[in-house]
Amino acid sequence: MSARGFRSARLLTATTSLRIVAVPAVMGLVLAGGDRADAIAAALFAAAAVTDFFDGYLARRWRVTTPLGSFLDTTADKLLVAGVLVALVDAGRASPWLAALIIGREIAILGLKGVVAADGDVVQPSLLAKWKAAIQFLAILLAIVRPGGEIAGAFADEWAMLVATLVTLASAADYLVRLAPVLRAPAAPESVAPPVDDRGRAERADVTFGPGQTTAP
């Protein structure tokens, strides 16, 4: 990697790390409550969501995508969504059932990606997964500020969270369909180590004895 590419990778890693650091700050502000705290929490969350979009775009544009960068980027997204959702549930701004479905999906798909990655395969996010992330961010942002009154018996952010949950589940189904052939493929046979005798030496069954030799060397 060139010096410029190294600096670009460090910049992207720094912004991703800041997104992770922002999670407890947003959670604390949501739990503190109040208009001022909600406004600051919404601003921090929006900034973190924007950096998520630009991180991926710039990484592809600069061609500095690395396994560590991809891991940190994915981890930051999951932490941001899960952490703020937990705070919103505690503050009475989000349904615990919908939050559980969203967080459960993120954990399950992250685990499946890890299983596939262990075989050297890379799962590219689909268009539906990208829309899922955008709708989740929007629903959480609305839940932080909760604008306006009720619409048909629920707040606007509650309707948005319901839509986000449905899209999240649809994205999970899409991943399962795409990964099914890989998950059903038979595992590669493991190499079996040769047995070891009582003197700590590996026994060999394919030793060819020389003339007059009656025991293995």
Descriptive tags:
217 residues, 6 helices, two-stranded antiparallel sheet, disordered C terminus, Four Helix Bundle (Hemerythrin (Met), subunit A), mainly alpha, globular
Describe, in plain words, how this protein is organized in 3D.
By secondary structure, the protein is mainly alpha-helical. The chain has a single domain (3-184), classed as CDP-alcohol phosphotransferase transmembrane (TM) domain (Four Helix Bundle (Hemerythrin (Met), subunit A)). It contains six helices and two strands; from the N terminus they run H-H-H-H-H-E-E-H. It has a two-stranded antiparallel sheet. Strand 1 and strand 2 (154-155) form a beta hairpin. Helix 2 (35-62) runs antiparallel to helix 3 (67-90), helix 4 runs parallel beside helix 6 (156-184) and helix 5 (127-145) runs antiparallel to helix 6 (156-184). The longest helix is centred in the first third of the chain and has 30 residues, at 3-32. The two termini are 49 Å apart. Residues 200-217 have low confidence and may be disordered.
